[in-house]
Amino acid sequence: MSITANILQRTFQLCFDKYQGTCFTIDCDNRQYIVTARHIVESITDSATIQIKHEKKWKDCPVNLVGHGEGEIDISVLAAPIQISHTHCLPPTTDGLTFGQDVYFLGFPDLQPSYDWVSEIGELNDNYPMPLIKKAIISYADPKTHLFLLDGHNNHGFSGGPVVFSEVGTPYAQLSVAAVVSAYLYTQEEVYLENDSPRELTYNSGIMEAYGIKHAIDLISQNPIGFNLEDKNIS
Question: Is the pLDDT of residue 25 over 60?
Fold first, then answer.
């Protein structure tokens, strides 16, 4: 499975209220929406200004709230007054997704110390930074909450990023987006140092949580205010 422009050119680095993460666009009924993790933007109640990294700078992007996922659903959908990305085909669906198959997730790590690990390829990506690509395996899915557990090593900053797949056994199948990265599960372990009392270390378990894209589609169906793609092309 190759990661193609239909997701690379839809994935962006996001900052809001000092929280940094990832977002991506989907198109529904000829309208474009921004999808991210709720815990990054949950203080948005109506309209707000987020920032998206472009030309190596944080740039303001006004948005209106489409909706937040309820309860534990860590998904939010926003609508901008302009077209954010190209409209390469990217079906928001889990149809064809199977247990044990490989998936990929994309995002922008927020690591300390800060490493310049994102690629800048100029006009080839409209002067947006390229996300990092990581691989995981579908380990578990809850049919009620559409919570996915993935065997993959998530990092801070990937929250809100897309989980993508192509149907197994279908040569050259297009990518679809199945879920939104939420968090990774961690444990506390004691570390013993010489001549010192034990200290607790937070350990990344390698199991990550993602919520099904169905929740984003449901929010959009209740409040379809995304940018109308018939109005104009991307500037």
Answer: yes
